[in-house]
Amino acid sequence: EAGVVQSPRYKIIEKKQPVAFWCNPISGHNTLYWYLQNLGQGPELLIRYENEEAVDDSQLPKDRFSAERLKGVDSTLKIQPAELGDSAVYLCASSSGLAGVEETQYFGPGTRLLVL
Amino acid sequence: GDSVTQMEGPVTLSEEAFLTINCTYTATGYPSLFWYVQYPGEGLQLLLKATKADDKGSNKGFEATYRKETTSFHLEKGSVQVSDSAVYFCALLGGGGSNYKLTFGKGTLLTVNP
Chain A interface residues facing chain B, Cβ-Cβ under 8 Å? Predict the structure, then answer.
């Protein structure tokens, strides 16, 4: 069974440029998460989707970050414009989405962003 | 709010040495506890988990026991290998009534020398 797929794996951009990350979750997983991992830190949740609905985006900086999951499968996270402080690893995770059940989250390899 | 505290690294061991990475947590409710491992250049992989007090999670020679009385979930391995070199993250899920919000520690870098 394929795991969570993310692309690109690495991205280097200049500040003020836009950037987008793509994620395809494990087949059949209804819940999708985007996490931000700063250097030397644990991941922090940015947004969580149940199917196509963003059910928790309280930690997403909405002035420059946006996300979508239009068909309830793959998802895109966008930053526009990027700032130097956005340099980090962006992780996508998915879980089965069974209501009321504690769910193990499975992570993709991440996209490492460097903003110059 | 919920929080996870891990021993600070880096931890450097020789091959076949005994490993302990300490993890304690603060949470309301009854969280599930996890250890994730991150190899260089890769994403997080689930190593083991425990969902209730006194449960022991184990995988690949690693084990951790959910101790509610000491709010701890220490990771142990009897004999480490060079291939175990990675960053290890302790995490909790379900504290505070949320069954989806993972709270991570800062990670502990382990280096195993031959």
Answer: 4, 6, 31, 33, 40-45, 48, 56, 91, 93, 95, 100-110
Tell me the CA distances in angstroms from A8 to A5, A20, A23, A108, A113, one per residue in order: 10, 9, 9, 11, 9
pLDDT tens across B48-105, in order?
999 999 999 999 999 999 999 999 999 999 999 999 999 999 999 876 556 677 899 9
Positions of E strands within B28-107:
32-38, 44-50, 56-59, 62-65, 75-77, 86-93, 102-104
Distance of CA B25 to the CA centre of its chain: 11
pLDDT digit string, tens, across residues A19-70: 999 999 999 899 999 999 998 889 999 999 989 999 889 889 999 999 999 8
Contact A101 B44 (CB under 8 A): no
The answer to whether B33 faces chain A, any CB pair under 8 Å, is no
B42 interfaces chain A, CB cutoff of 8 Å: yes
Would the CB atoms of B100 and A31 count as touching at under 8 Å? yes
